[in-house]
Write a structure and sequence with these properties.
mainly alpha
Length: about 140
């Protein structure tokens, strides 16, 4: 961190021994050691935080690039319009089929009513030639 060699540390120790004396030197060394440790810890946490922020920014940039590449490759707008067209086509066809099935269902119901009327007339013996001819004509169609 401070990039000091052995001779520099020895020189600092001799000066500290002369200035502080042998009685206060151990306590001062402990205090200086704690300060240096706290400073290293602070510098390391700042370094880790800066690295983390740089990685986050790098990842965000990569995400933007990938998103742009995917949108370019896929043609997002074209895909969206194609899906919308397909959806409207399917809805129109579904409505058309539903209308046709309702029409056919109504025709079947009407035919069933007429057949039941003819059948009830036949069982009662009240058959009229006009009803019989009309019922037979519809069955052959």
């Amino acid at each position: 961190m401070f990039d000091m060699g052995f001779l520099e540390l020895l020189l600092i120790g001799i000066i500290a021994l002369i200035v502080l004396g042998p009685e206060r030197l151990p306590k001062a060394a402990r205090t200086v050691g704690l300060w240096v440790a706290k400073a290293k810890q602070g510098f390391e946490s700042v370094k880790v935080e800066i690295d983390r922020e740089l990685k986050v920014q790098e990842l965000q940039q990569q995400i933007k690039e990938q998103k742009a590449k995917i949108e370019k490759d896929v043609g997002f707008d074209q895909l969206k319009s194609s899906i919308t067209e397909t959806q409207s086509f399917l809805e129109d066809n579904a409505n058309s089929i539903l209308n046709e099935s309702n029409t056919i269902s109504n025709q079947i119901k009407n035919d069933m009513k007429e057949k039941s009327n003819v059948d009830s007339d036949v069982t009662d013996g009240n058959i009229e030639p006009a009803k019989l001819d009309s019922a037979e004509g519809k069955q052959h169609d």
